[in-house]
Amino acid sequence: MSENHNKHISFNDSHKICFRQHALTENLSWAHYQNSEERLFYINDKQHTLSMYLSGGYETHRTDIQADFGGPGRFSLMPKDSESRWQLGIPQQFMHLYFDDNYLKQLALKVFDMDPRTIEVPELTFFENQGLESLFRYQVANIDWHTQSHLALEQITNTVLVSMLQSSGLTKSLNRIKGGLSPHVARLISDYIQQHYHRQIYLCELADLAQLSEYHFCRMFKESFARTPQEYLTYIRIEQVKHLLKTSAQSLSDIALDCGFANQSHMGRYFKKQFGITPRAFQKSQL
C-alpha cells in the first residue's frame, strides 16, 4: 500500500519496510513491501491496485467489511477511488501492481478486441488465483526489477493484466453500453488515422467523418478507444516507430519525420512516455 501511489493514514508506521519500487511507465509500476501490527485507512485515489501476499498475512483483515483473513498467495484488487480500513498482524510481505484504468482498457482492446466501455474493475478482498500467483511469484518476485530488461518486465506485466482480464470475476463485463462511436464509425476513424498518421490530422477532419461536432466526437472517441484522438494518433505513430526500429536501417531523425513527428527529440519524448525507454535503448535491445 504505497504512499507514493495511493494514500494511507497509518496509526503505526514503524514496522513498514519498502524493499523495492519500479515504475515501467507512468501507467504501470510495481512495489514490494513488508509491514506488521498496523491499523490503516487506505485511499486508492491514483490507480487500480492488484496486491498479492508473498508471506504472512494470516492475522490481516479488513475492519470496514466482513471478509476473510489474508495469507500467502491471496490477492486483493482495489479499484481507483476505493477506500478501505485494515488491521495488519504478524510481519507479512506483499507485492502491488499499480495500473491505470485506460491502460487496462487499451490492452483489452488491443489483445482481445474488447470494447473498453464493457470493462470495469471490481473491488475484491483476499481471493485466490493459481495462474496469477505463479506469475507474481516466479515471473516478477524472483527477478531483479532494475537489471531485468525493461521490455521483458513490461511483457510480464502485460501478461499479468491479460490473465486478469481472462479470469472470471476479476473484471466486470457491463452489458449496457452508453456513449461512444458506433462500430462502423470507430473502424472508419481508426482506418483513417492509420492511413494518414505521417501527417498532421486535424480534429475537424475526424469529426466530419463521424458526422459529429468536434466536442461530441472527442467525448465519444474517448469512450470507444480509452484515449483522446491526439493520444490515439500518437499511439499509432509510436507503434510505427517501434516497427521501423526493428526492421529499418533508417536514422532516428528520418524515422521521426516519416512517422509524423517534428524531430527526433519530439519522437523520443513520446516513445519514452509510452514504453518507458528511449528509441535508441529500444533499438539496442533488438540487436
Radius of gyration: 21 Å
Question: N-to-C SSE series?
Answer: EEEEEEEEEHEEHHEHHHHHHH
Main β-sheet, in a few words?
6 strands, antiparallel
Gross morphology is globular
Helix tally? 10
Major β-sheet strand ordering: 2-3-9-5-7-11
Q: How much helicity do the residues have?
A: 40-55%
Low-confidence stretches: none
Structural class category: alpha+beta
Structure, described:
The chain has 287 residues and is an alpha+beta fold. It has 10 helices and 12 strands. The protein has helices spanning 101-112, 130-141, 150-166, 183-196, 203-210, 214-225, 229-247, 252-258, 264-275, 279-285, and strands at 7-10, 17-25, 28-35, 38-44, 48-55, 61-62, 74-78, 82-88, 92-99, 119-120, 124-128, 172-173. The protein has a 6-stranded antiparallel sheet. It has a 4-stranded antiparallel sheet with strand order 1-4-8-6, with no helix packed on it. A hairpin with a 2-residue loop joins β2 and β3 (28-35). It is globular and about 60 Å long. It starts with 6 loop residues before the first strand and ends with a helix. 29% of the residues are buried. The mean pLDDT is 91. Keywords: DNA-binding, Transcription, Transcription regulation. This is AraC family transcriptional regulator. Pfam families: HTH_18 (PF12833). Residues 187-285 form the HTH araC/xylS-type domain.
